Predict the 3D structure of the following.
Amino acid sequence: MARDLAIDLGTANTLVYMKGKGIVLNEPSVIAMNRQTGEVLATGHEAWQMIGRTPGYIVAVRPLRGGAITDFDVTERMIRLLLQRVGVSRFTRPKVVICVPSAITEVERRAVTDAARRAGAADAQLIEQPMAAAIGAQLPIDEPIGNMIIDIGGGTSETAVISLGGIVALEAVRVGSFDIDVAIQNYVRREHGIAIGERTAEDIKVAIGSAAVTPDEVEAEVNGRDLMQGLPKTVVLTPEEIRYAIDDTVTQIVQSVVRCLAKAPAELAQDFLGRGIHLVGGGGLLRGLAQRIELETHVPVLMADMPLEAVVLGAGHCIENYDQLKRMFMGQRR
């Protein structure tokens, strides 16, 4: 008999939770294909290593952008491969709960469920990421108190106020950690005249990136291709430069949090001062981001215990009570 699955189909990473076993897969949402034959060469970590390093006939792509499917066929093939890797076959068709951004359209929602069913799921239902994140962060969402959660992913940033099992206020923007990487790439190209790849930009973000001044800051050497001469070139970047480069993107994320606070009913807003705002998602690990949000909102910001896994853990909790999930959370709208 098939074990039910919860899938956090993220722009950056895909996590799979199996009922009774916990998280069984955590890999980048990347698939490498032979452009000429259509053959899938690699997925996950192996495909991620190929980004920017492949010959012309091999392409390593992320089939999701901004939390939405940009290539239906490739996404279906990736989901099928993921299901096969966790033991799903045509004889064992599980029920699947998939976490999706609240910002995606009805057409994009249908594309996700269709891709999952065609990939081998017996049934596919959706749960919005802020709700799943709140459950995974173990917030008392069923109680009449204000729970505020910020989920910053690769392609989207979502802030939600949840009370009595429903989303009371929501603000979602299609801006995330990938946009921070792009801002770093553009800055290095513009100010230093060198081209760097997606992976290098991410390494810079992790090494010296920050949203506010932090202690023990260091500089970083970066290797790239000189745009004038076409030769390899090394430059030194400072944390101040990176803060300047990503400031516009970080500001968009912070302002979305401020707008969500403004939408919250007054009776719930006072709960945040005591309970704080809970931060999840890989983008939330950017140094100084919690302090920046606190400075702008005057509300304490708390990092969840397992920020990267909170969404899939919340969905995993739901598959233990699948029928209840279908009644309470499916198709939830703001």
Observations:
- Confidence is low (pLDDT under 50) at residues 329-334.
- Residues 48 and 163 are 39 Å apart (CA to CA).
- The chain is about 40% helix and 25% strand.
